[in-house]
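3.2 Worked example (two chains)
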Amino acid sequence: MPHQLPLFEIHLSQRRRTFQWCLCTTEGRPLMQGAEASRVAAKYQADRALFLMLLASAYRPQLPGEGRFESFGRTRPEA
């Protein structure tokens, strides 16, 4: 049975002179939110929050034999 990966949505709305952004699950539960002065800045911060959420996710596939530091160009010492 395959694992069900979580899905996220970004919501942008204008409130007076600020733009509110919210990173939510598909069920509507807010995970991160904020406010910015411009729509472009709000979109950037929402995308950044989504990227950080995915980067910290335990669902990232890891190749067999790939160590923690190999993705940074470092290699393991030869035994």
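3.2.1 Second chain
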Amino acid sequence: MNYKLVICGDGNFMDQLKKLISESGVEHKVVLKGMMEPDELFHFAQTATIGVAFPEKDGLNQWLALPNKFFDYLHAGLPQITVDYPEYKKLNEEYHVAVLVSDISPQTIAAAINNLMQNDVLLEQLKQNCLKAREILTWQQEEKKFIAFYKEIPFKK
């Protein structure tokens, strides 16, 4: 791929990642930004072209989860490439804000990134869909559903 990868955050494998970047000679293509405050991360994400997130399916938790990163990208107006796990798929069927992949092999990820970066029409469509979806998928909207749900629960006095 001929694109720069910027990694924000930190993790258990950062030392291994730094070594891999060095051994592969891709220091000019991979930038490690480290930890960022949420506001700084949001503004930084708005300068990116796409977001990528590829959690492994090590357990039921990852398979059924819907991490904040999905919504962080969406609210930044950032199309994303991620996995086709059930919750991602459900939201993407409704809002079409991402390209979903069925496996996280390097070849699949590279192909998805290259395809999206070369398809200006799809990239712009996903971005516009993010901007629309972020008006709907807000805490203010979800709060109403949350409160209505709890009002339906019969509590014993």
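3.3 Remarks
The two ends are 62 Å apart (CA to CA).
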